Every structure is written in structure tokens, then in C-alpha cells.
Amino acid sequence: MPETVLKPRTKTQPKTERPKLYKVILVNDDFTPREFVVTVLKGEFKLSEDQAHRVMITAHTRGVCVVAVFTKDVAETKATRATDAGKAKGYPLLFTVEPEE
């Protein structure tokens, strides 16, 4: 009688990896009015009045402050739009993006 060899079928599951996250950072400057920074934070990042004020004060005292964490595309878009809002009013407001560790 012939010998039958059975091999188990293997299913490969594709591994889905979470997208890398990026921090949007507010860089302090001595020229942009605090009220304007709070307005930009509320408008672009949907922060409450209190949250926006705390982020602005932290950036003012420490030099920089992480505003929020997003995927790369979203972080770059929000940082660019917020920086452009400052430029449109003639302020040197600056938001940068860097990878989260």
C-alpha cells in the first residue's frame, strides 16, 4: 500500500504595522502675541482655551512645547498651516515636526 504524506497548509497573515507618529512642536519666539498663539492652537489643533493657554505658557517658559502627536502627513500639514497663519499676520510663529521616539 502506498504511503500518504499529509502536509499542513500554512496561512500567512500579513503583519500590519502601526504608522509611525510625529510630534508637532511649538517653538517660542519673542514677537508673536500670546493671544494670537492661543487662537492658532484653538483653531488648528482644536484645543480648548485652557489647553491652548497651557501649551503657549509652556513654550514660553521652556522654549518649546509638544502640541500634539499625529501621523506624519497630518503632523506636517497642521504644522505648516499653523506656521503659515503666523506668516500671514507677519509673525515669526514656528511649528516643527519630529518623529516620536
TrEMBL record:
Residues 18-96 form the Adaptor protein ClpS core domain. GO terms for biological process: protein catabolic process; proteolysis. Keywords: Hydrolase, Protease. InterPro entries: ClpS, ClpS_core, Ribosomal_bL12_C/ClpS-like. Gene3D superfamilies: 3.30.1390.10. Binds to the N-terminal domain of the chaperone ClpA. This is ATP-dependent Clp protease adapter protein ClpS. It comes from Mesorhizobium atlanticum. The lineage of its organism: Bacteria, Pseudomonadati, Pseudomonadota, Alphaproteobacteria, Hyphomicrobiales.
